[in-house]
Automatic annotation (TrEMBL):
Name listed for the protein in its UniProt record: Small ribosomal subunit biogenesis GTPase RsgA
Originating gene: rsgA
Source taxon at top rank: Bacteria
EC number: 3.6.1.-
Pfam families for the chain: RsgA_GTPase (PF03193)
Amino acid sequence: MTPLSAIGWHWTPATLPPAWAALGAAHPQARPARVVEQHRSGYRVSEVIDVVHPAESLPEWQRAGSYRKGEINPEARPAVGDWVLVEGSAPKSLRIVALLPRFSAIKRGAAGEHYRQQVIAANIDTVFVVCGLDGDFNPRRIERYLLLVGGSGVQPVIVLTKSDKPEAEVEAALAALRTLDVPVLALNAKDPASASALAPWLAAGQSIVLVGSSGAGKSTLTNTLLGNEKMKTGAVRERDARGRHTTTHRALMALASGACLIDTPGMRELKPTGEEDVAESFADIEALAQQCRFRDCKHTNEPGCAVRVAIASGVLEAGRVDNFLKLDAEVTGAANQLATRLAQKAQARVQGKALHKRLDAKYDRH
Ligand SMILES: Nc1nc2c(ncn2[C@@H]2O[C@H](COP(=O)(O)OP(=O)(O)OP(=O)(O)O)[C@@H](O)[C@H]2O)c(=O)[nH]1
Ligand SMILES: [Zn+2]
């Protein structure tokens, strides 16, 4: 056990990923730390639970650069949840010297003029997709979260809260989500005994993120899982670069089980990156589509559409099909933007090479 265990470190010298070991050997003075906040001006990292310090990042992570020239690859920069190697002493002179390759990354498309991707949480083991069994219950929103999490390397678990409410239709909700091939639990987020059903995903060294719309019960569940730690949920005291005490939002919380919860504001609104696999998320619809008369069936009003037949016979929910079509269009749109961006990058690289060649020839550099 090291203090790092409480913030998600579960490797031993024997289980350390070889790439991490190699980076460690390349930076013998450095030690691992976890990124808990990402700001415009830099990063905040933890080496010990509830102790957060600013850390200077590598210059190439700070430069604005041009997306056209491929100078900034957001994926190559640390994000919340990443393990990095740091040197120097806290609180004033911590420096990040390397980013350890991540084993999972939840990404989203970022709003803006140009196509951009953001890693919103790295090295997460499980994401709890939280949805209340009240008027807010919405399988379509759950499908969206699952699509975005699919392929990230993170295990999704659907957590239906408010099962204790009189209006909760637990059985109907479980039935509606059965096609998703993801663990689904219904519980009372206020009740520790009920929330203990999540124990299989909360083993020591596990990192968990909660997503879900406002009012779904994320804070309630977080408090219940924290138990005695409850009072500390909202805020953490930390020392800033000048040594002053400040109180900020708590981004990484340790559970008694040894797991940790990571809270990042980036998880609120999720827009596809274009890399999502819609067919995999909607495998049931994809399988039916194989039986449609037309290969390019849009499943709207084509004759011989197996998907429409399934809806008519009650095998498939019309809302799920609509959501599939909507998300598929969103992912296709983002994928086209992504392709354009990659083409621009490749072109810029070729132009750059040609320029160097001309300059080399002109000045006889070699
Ligand atoms: N009865 C009951 N009430 C719950 C349950 N989970 C959450 N609530 C209530 O629902 C309301 C919203 O819960 P929050 O935990 O604040 O929701 P949240 O997801 O954190 O919302 P944001 O902070 O806005 O993102 C609160 O009044 C909770 O007490 C539950 O399982 N049972
Ligand atoms: Zn069809």
